[in-house]
């Protein structure tokens, strides 16, 4: 399973990269705003800064909602660095843009996926990644893991190479369940990745080992 971090915060991206398990980054306009990044020049520079930290897969989202605007923005984003994956919303113009970029060999991530039908359409249009939003589905009481299972089944039925990028991850249970179901990628906050480290028996076991070592050394 690939691990992406879902943030535009450079310190958190560096921390995840230093851990040695990071495969990429996803951002969105809200995450960029959270870091107070605004204005075309600053936004572009911020994406370059992120690309300088990680090895590959930096999802950069277009703001335009019309086809021409998406193409113009997406091409400018893709020209920044080979690591950029253009993030396109699941709309009619978005699907056309996915096909356009696929034909040009520019990688895409189709975002705001909430149904298996949307994922199928994005895969047909040649998206490299589809991003079903788990946490937001949980928030409205929908079956988020069922959606991942349905998309997995459909992609496997037809051999689609589009990767399932489980997004809106909120906790370690989301990550582990998605890994069991067969999501190709998960993107979550740093806390969800670091949460995988934790188990109380690991802490108490380590404390016991160190105490026994100290006791033996004192004998
Ligand atoms: C996906 O790429 C999005 O950036 C993200 O996962 C949204 O998550 P949220 O529901 O926590 O905002």
UniProtKB/TrEMBL annotation:
Keywords: Cytoplasm, Pentose shunt, Schiff base, Transferase. GO terms for cellular component: cytoplasm. Gene3D superfamilies: Aldolase class I. Pathway: Carbohydrate degradation; pentose phosphate pathway; D-glyceraldehyde 3-phosphate and beta-D-fructose 6-phosphate from D-ribose 5-phosphate and D-xylulose 5-phosphate (non-oxidative stage): step 2/3. It is found in: Cytoplasm. GO terms for biological process: carbohydrate metabolic process; ketone catabolic process; pentose-phosphate shunt. InterPro entries: Aldolase_TIM, TAL/FSA, Transaldolase_3B, Transaldolase_3B/F6P_aldolase, Transaldolase_AS, TSA/FSA_arc/bac. PROSITE patterns: TRANSALDOLASE_1 (PS01054), TRANSALDOLASE_2 (PS00958). Its main location: cytoplasm. Its EC number is 2.2.1.2. It holds the Pfam family TAL_FSA. The keyword Cytoplasm applies. It catalyses: D-sedoheptulose 7-phosphate + D-glyceraldehyde 3-phosphate = D-erythrose 4-phosphate + beta-D-fructose 6-phosphate. Transaldolase is important for the balance of metabolites in the pentose-phosphate pathway. HAMAP family: Transaldolase_3b. Belongs to the transaldolase family. Type 3B subfamily. This is Probable transaldolase. It comes from Pedobacter psychrophilus.
């Amino acid at each position: 399973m690939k691990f992406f971090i879902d943030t535009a915060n450079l310190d958190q991206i560096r921390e995840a990269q230093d851990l040695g398990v990071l495969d990429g980054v996803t951002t969105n306009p809200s995450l960029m705003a959270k870091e107070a990044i605004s204005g075309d020049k600053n936004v572009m520079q911020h994406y370059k800064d992120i690309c300088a930290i990680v090895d590959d897969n930096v999802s950069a989202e277009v703001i335009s909602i019309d086809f021409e605007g998406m193409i113009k923005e997406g091409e400018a984003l893709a020209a920044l660095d080979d690591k950029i994956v253009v993030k396109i919303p699941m709309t009619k113009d978005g699907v056309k843009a996915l096909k356009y970029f696929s034909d040009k060999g520019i990688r895409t991530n189709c975002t705001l996926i909430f149904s298996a039908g949307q994922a199928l359409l994005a895969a047909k249009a040649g998206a490299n990644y589809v991003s079903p939003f788990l946490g937001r589905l949980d928030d409205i009481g929908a079956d988020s893991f069922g959606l991942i299972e349905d998309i997995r089944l459909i992609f496997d039925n037809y051999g689609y190479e589009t990767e399932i990028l489980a997004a809106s991850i909120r906790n370690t249970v989301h990550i582990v369940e998605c890994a069991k179901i067969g999501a190709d990628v998960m993107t979550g906050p740093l806390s969800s990745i670091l949460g995988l480290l934790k188990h109380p028996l690991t802490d108490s076991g380590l404390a016991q080992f160190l105490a026994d070592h100290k006791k033996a050394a004192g004998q």
